[in-house]
Every structure is written in C-alpha cells, then in structure tokens.
Amino acid sequence: MVHDSSGWICGGVVHNLLDHVHLGEQVRLIRSEDFAAEPVSVPAVRRFIRWCCETVGGDPDACELLASELATNAVNHANTPFRVTFAALRGQPVRVEVRDWSLRLPEPRAADLDDAGGRGFELVDALAAEWHVDVNEAAGYKVVCFTLAGDAA
C-alpha cells in the first residue's frame, strides 16, 4: 500500500481521489462509503455492496456475504468507524476493502460446531480468490481486502 497526501493506493486503486467515477475503458466503478461502528451498519454495508455489484452487472451474493463478515469484524473487534470501498476494473476481479482505525489484526480461528461466531474468515478463505491485511501504523489504521475470482463483467 502506498500513501500520499491526497489519499492511499492499494492494489493500484487510488481511494478518496476517485470515489464513484467512471474513467474511460478501465474503471467500471469505484465507490467508498463510511459507516459507524454500530450493528445497524452491517445491513447497510450489504445494501451498499449489492448496489455496487448490480451496477456493474455482477453476482452480489458472495461479495455481499464477505463484505458483511468484514464489516461485522470492524464493528465487533475494531469498534471504530470504518470505510468500505468497492472497486471494479475491467478485466480484473472485484475488490472490496474495509478500513478501520484499529491496528488490531484479524485473528482467524477454527470455530467449534456449537460456537455462535468465529466462521467469518472460513467463509473469506472459501469464497475469496485472495485476501490480505495492510497496516499503516503511522496513520493508525488497517485495511482488510479481498478479491473475488474472475472479471467483474
């Protein structure tokens, strides 16, 4: 991840500068929205991601589920406001990022059969083409990113 005074670049996508734009042939949709660290934000994230996927003609189900899991982690574990960014570039997989203001890293674990939670990263592992965490200690935030398999088209 590269940072400069006008925003940040993660995976070749500039955030804050190119929020919800269509740029020629390459960019189909880049959109970011901010959410409060409250449980009511999780269904709002699902609606936001569904709208983004439908806007670019993609199947929203897996993307919506994974973004919901990351949003739930931001609410339950980071307990800070968070930003969700959806990026769809032609010829590249859909990418979703969840940035929160906590440096606490996700702790994927294997849930027991009777556990009420703890399966979020099992879903991310199963449905995402790849995922990772970028941390900016100086600025005090982390970004959890995932990509889906295939082109957004």
TrEMBL record:
Pfam families: HATPase_c_2. Coiled coil: none annotated. InterPro entries: Anti-sigma-factor_SerPK (IPR050267), HATPase_C_sf (IPR036890), HATPase_dom (IPR003594). Keywords: ATP-binding, Kinase, Nucleotide-binding, Serine/threonine-protein kinase, Transferase. It comes from the Bacteria. One of its GO terms (molecular function) is ATP binding. Residues 35-144 form the Histidine kinase/HSP90-like ATPase domain. This is ATP-binding protein. It comes from Kitasatospora acidiphila.
